[in-house]
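We modelled the chain as a single entity of 77 amino acids. Its sequence is:
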Amino acid sequence: MDIVVNPLQSWEQFTKEKKSILSNLAERAKLTEESLNTVPGMHCNPVQGAMCAFPRIFIPPKAIEEAKVCGQPFTAV
């Protein structure tokens, strides 16, 4: 119970560092999303939680047809 009433002296330092790290990660996530969304034919939902981005890439039908003509197989997942 003593720890609740009298928190450790390092607690304030810890919370400042934690807020700084989380703020930095949120800023990087926003930058990643904005950067991916500037690429033509690409869309990315907001990056949240883990630092994983899942951009959606739009390939024009004409590009798919050209790939087939050149013998390049096209598979969509």
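As a brief sanity check on the tokenised model: Residues 1 and 28 are 39 Å apart (CA to CA). The radius of gyration is 23 Å.
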